Amino acid sequence: MVENRPFAQFMAYLTLAIGILVVAFPVYLAVMASTFDTATIINGNMPLVPGDQAAENYNRTLLYGGMHARQPVGGMMFNSMIMALGIAIGKILISILSAYAVVYFKFPFRKTAFWVIFITLMLPVEVRIYPTYKIVADLGLLDTYTGLVMPLIASATGTLLFRQFFMTIPDELLEASKIDGAGAFRFFKDTLLPLSMTTIAALFVIQFIYGWNQYLWPLLITTKSSMQTIVIGIKMMITTTDALTEWNVAMTTAVLAMLPPVLVVILMQRLFVKGLVETEK
Amino acid sequence: MAGVTLDTVRKIYAGNVEAVKGVSLSIEDGSFCVLVGPSGCGKSTLLRMIAGLETISGGEVKIGDRVVNQVEPADRDIAMVFQNYALYPHMSVYDNMAYGLRNRGTPKGEIEKRVKEAARILAIESFLARKPRQLSGGQRQRVAMGRAIVRKPQVFLFDEPLSNLDAKLRVQMRVEIKRLQRALGVTSIYVTHDQVEAMTLSDKLVVMSGGQVEQVGTPAEVYRRPETRFVATFIGSPPMNILPGTVEGPGRVSVGGQSIAVTDMRDGLTPGSAIEVGLRPEDVQAGGVGASSLSMDVDFVEELGATQLFHGKVAGAEFIVQASTGQLPADTRKLTLAVDPENVHLFDPQTTKRLGRE
């Protein structure tokens, strides 16, 4: 808008501020709660200023876990990290290759292949969870990283995204590479991959968070506590039946669980911006 | 160096669409051949078949003495300049030019030498480290040509390389391409729809229409003696005027009851039969008196600076006359046109072929 009306601007900022408050306040509370001891919070006092137990809480949670769920959150974070990275990188690898095949190679049933991939968009993990579980169990992959990662790697979204991007690359670029003596693999490595960097970054962020936040699948296929992921860990800390919930530890875990996705977004944001600025005219 | 020979080359697309209908052509070593025609005439398809980017449905393409129908584009010893330049956006200018050589396994020192030399010829030395997006259209065009030059190919292929440039730059680059081709002496095939480019650049002009070659010749030949009505109206700006006429006798035709003498006329045409009479706007003398003349009703005048175009009708057909500015008053409503018998072109209304002397 070009007009400059102070009141309208004030209202706009007020609305924004309220929106941010609503979203950010619970996060703030969680961070605060992670800095007090159990007793303070159990008593129903939720202080809005930081307490003095931060170092103690984080240290204990990371290395030893809660009183009831005695599993160090550090280990859970490691598991989550492997799963999230595995899913993100695996998805990118598989989808960029399948998109490359679908866009640049002419083979029988190419359209069919694309539509089959497309249709799987309608079948999220939850729908196919029992057959998937059966297969993973039969392959003896329960309680393994492979079992955690592999079934979630296939990605119609990623394939679609790369396909759309590849379609915007002018055909002449492929033809120029052909004349320059670059075969299918060289064209992919030297031209397509560098040009896809921003798409890859975007997809990495989305898929990393998707993988990090997985709940149902790891819950099903991990039985050993050493294979638990952090998202499951939070849940375990809250649902203690025979004792008081250690809210400070639960909140500490929640804050820890938030960190890696936030870091990924912040770090990758640079690449986005760079990509946006550097796009070809 | 090598020439290029095409023998009844065909391109048939899926659905039986014949884009190129048996083109035979021989392009001499070191010459500059321009394929010109309206869009969809098959000129680009033909070029892409020579490049190896389209499969050849029939016939034979030879570069030098080698039949290249089944040869990969990279192994045909050609270089191509694309309309949108097709520079690799993520590579520097240097890498863009060096890429093809690297893929070929050329030694590093040799690559550097060739790229530096091409950059010097094209005056792009100071941009070598830049990315294509940091260059202007003309500079990108130069880089695209540089990429072609470093390959030291036997044939240069140009696919409407100047279409993305503004008018001024286009004229400048046109001259540079010509100069470069002369200096390097590499056989070049150039596709364009712009007849000015076609006329100025070519040693050999190939006019195409509907997937077929209409005429091959030097620019002067094509302009002076168009073989078909299509060539006559396509080459030359403004286009040749075509008037309906009838044959009167040897060396004479009549247009709207006015008799015109013709030098280049086929013998044995039946008097009274219909014929098409072609006259270039610049070949008729407005207001002059000659052996034969036509009268014209002027509708309006277009001002071009050095010349004026008088639009109107002769014998009921649209007609344009070009005259130097100031030669005629701008409010002229009626003109008498003197016609030199040398400058009259005759065409068969059915076959559209030229009815000149055999």
Structural overview:
The complex is a heterodimer of chains A (281) and B (358). Chain A has helices at 6-33, 38-42, 54-63, 73-104, 110-119, 129-138, 145-149, 156-168, 171-179, 184-195, 197-212, 216-221, 230-238, 247-278. Chain A is an all-alpha fold and 281 residues long. In chain A, α13 packs antiparallel against α14 (247-278). The longest helix of chain A is centred in the N-terminal third of the chain and has 32 residues, at 73-104. Chain A is globular and about 75 Å long. The two termini of chain A are 26 Å apart. Chain B has 358 residues and is an alpha+beta fold. Chain B has two domains: 4-226, 3-Layer(aba) Sandwich (Rossmann fold), CATH 3.40.50.300; 238-347, Nucleic acid-binding proteins (OB fold (Dihydrolipoamide Acetyltransferase, E2P), Beta Barrel). Helices cover 24% and strands 34% of the residues of chain B. Chain B is built from eight helices and 20 strands. In chain B, a hairpin with a 3-residue loop joins β16 (292-303) and β17 (307-314). In chain B, α2 (93-103) runs parallel beside α4 (137-149) and α3 (108-122) crosses α4 (137-149). Chain B starts with a strand and ends in an 11-residue tail after the last strand. Chains A and B meet through α9 and α10 of A and β6 and α2 of B.
* Annotated CATH architecture of the largest domain in chain A: Orthogonal Bundle
Number of strands of chain A: 0
**How much is the average pLDDT of chain B?**
91
Order of helices and strands of chain A: HHHHHHHHHHHHHH
Q: Any low-confidence stretches of chain A, pLDDT <50, length ≥5?
A: none
CATH superfamily (homologous) name of the largest domain in chain A = MetI-like
Percent of residues in helices of chain B: 10-25%
C-alpha geometry of chain B = elongated
Supply the number of structural domains of chain B: 2
- Rg of chain A is 24 Å
| N-to-C CA distance of chain B | 36 Å
**Which structural class should the secondary elements of chain A be placed in?**
mainly alpha
Weakly predicted, low-confidence segments of chain B: none
Beta-strand level of the residues of chain B, as a percent range? 25-35%
The Cα radius of gyration of chain B reads: 24 Å
- Oligomer status: heterodimer
Q: Look at the structure and give the CATH class of the largest domain in chain B.
A: Alpha Beta
Biggest sheet character of chain B: 6 strands, mixed
Strand order of the largest sheet of chain B: 6-7-8-3-9-10
> How far do the termini of chain A sit from each other?
26 Å
Report helical residue fraction of chain A. Answer: over 70%
